[in-house]
Amino acid sequence: MKLTGVELRKVRMPLVAPFRTSFGTQTARELLLLRVATDETEGWGECGTLADPVYSPEYVDGAADVLRRYLIPALAARDRLDATNVGPALSVFHGHRMAKSALEMAVLDAELTACGVSLARELGAVHDRVPCGVSVGIMESIDHLLEVVGGYLDEGYQRIKLKIEPGWDVLPVRAVRERFGDIMLQVDANTAYTLADADLLARLDPFDLLLIEQPLAEEDIVGHAELAKRVRTPICLDESITSARSAAAAITLGACRVVNIKPGRVGGYLEARRIHDVCAAHGIPVWCGGMLETGLGRAANIALAALPGCVLPGDTSASGRYYHTDITAPFVLDDGHLPVPTGPGIGVRPIPELLDEVTTSTEWLPL
Ligand SMILES: CC(=O)N[C@@H](Cc1ccc2ccccc2c1)C(=O)O
Ligand SMILES: [Mg+2]
Q: 286-295 burial, b for 16+ CB within 10 Å, e for fewer?
């Protein structure tokens, strides 16, 4: 398969409601899509970076720059192109895992489409539908939070995840537990706490949460291991897990008992599968995280979420959780599940007129 060119496309999709986390409030999702053209087919990749480097060090314009100047030229220089040699070809460049993931995803989509194999089959999926959880932002009042959580439970979501930060943690968790009983409930701090907050975080223990996601800083693996001795609720890592090696280290140090796998954060779906396998070997449950993807990234994440070790509902929510209109056919919750795409490659394609409506720029890089 020969690479003939890559299209970089920036899109901006308004969110159905502001989404507040410990790192800020977002009202729209700006992200980068890639279309890889080859001599046989084309493939689509999605880069999960935010517009600003507030979740991780990457951001949209930085990803576009590193793809344009380094990653895409490095691929074009290869005579033989398949998805398994994208990682090695890009390993000379440090970091930029979300940008690398988008390029690998597009090549993987093109390659699998050409040979008629689904991403789910390629990754080793064992389910044809996956149970879905939902991520709930920080709200301005407990009443509004309870209204929103009630709505998601009525829609059929099987797990509720509450964003927390200092000042919005014990009260919202207690209110949701008291109102809705023994639902599957977890929290995500997005690194907002420090080890000095250990006693505060231990006040969440009576509420039988499934996990506390990324309470401390991305680099603070030792801090999470220390926190795990002082808090009963299982620690789950997100931002800290950037590769199979970092997952093995975190597990060995006792820094986490659960892992949120995000293909973009770890450099791609092939590394995501390796993390899944490392965690499974250590008896560590995993689930598929979310980056408010369009239907393209959502389709690929659902394939990953169908792997056997993904034993907890992921943030693979329906398209309507974030967007009035997706750029693909919408993913609609059915009995609390989403179907695993069965078509070749990622199994979905953008709908041209919907994609054009949200496109803010496109750039064609011939190769
Ligand atoms: C579903 C969920 O909570 N995802 C991330 C946080 C996140 C990720 C990407 C975002 C992009 C735009 C606006 C908010 C965003 C929040 C997380 O698990 O930590
Ligand atoms: Mg998270």
A: bbbbbbbbbb
